Structures are given as structure tokens and as C-alpha cells.
Amino acid sequence: xxxxxxxxxxxxxxxxxxxxxxxxxxxxxxxxxxxxxxxxxxxxxxxxxxxxxxxxxxxxxxxxxxxxxxxxxxxxxxxxxxxxxxxxxxxxxxxxxxxxxxxxxxxxxxxxxxxxxxxxx
Length: 121
Prior knowledge:
Pathway: Protein modification; protein ubiquitination. The protein is mainly alpha-helical.
């Protein structure tokens, strides 16, 4: 359970089922929402600074919270940041950046067996 308490606000979200989530990510999403109605130029500057301290895991965390809370504009911004991370990289570099591991031949075989339709007796 994550809590954000500041001045007269007490926000409690149960995000324990979302990976990559920590208090800093939740605070950033709340900050985004607090600054959402800024004029376009100020909002753009704010959004640029919002992501400067985050590496891939943090951006994925923001994306997860934005998706969970259904914040389309923040989802778009987070996806653009992820797109920029992936740009001009090889498949191997992207897999390493996002922690994607290759399947072993045994895992591939198990997946194939599990995907086969069973015959009705």
C-alpha cells in the first residue's frame, strides 16, 4: 500500500500488484496530476523535468500507474520516453535494457506443448 501525505492531502493507493512501483513513482504521478492544468509551455517544461531522474524501470513504473489510473496523456508521454529509449538500438540492446531474457530450448518446447490444442475424447 502506498501513501502520499502532503499538507492537506492524504492519498492511499493499493498498487502492490504492479511491478516497478515505488513511492517516488507514485509521487511523480501525483505531481503530474497536480500540474496537469498548467499552460502548455509550462506543462511541457514540467513533463520534461518529471522524467529526468528516471531510468527505464522508473518510466515503466510511471506507465504502469498511469495505465492503472487511466491517465491517457501521461501514458502517451511515458510511451514516447520508452520509444526514445528503444530508438536506434539493436534487439539485443533493447532486450538488455528491458531485462528480457531469451528462452531456453526447453522453455520453447514446453510452450509449444502447452499451446497445442487437446483432442476431445
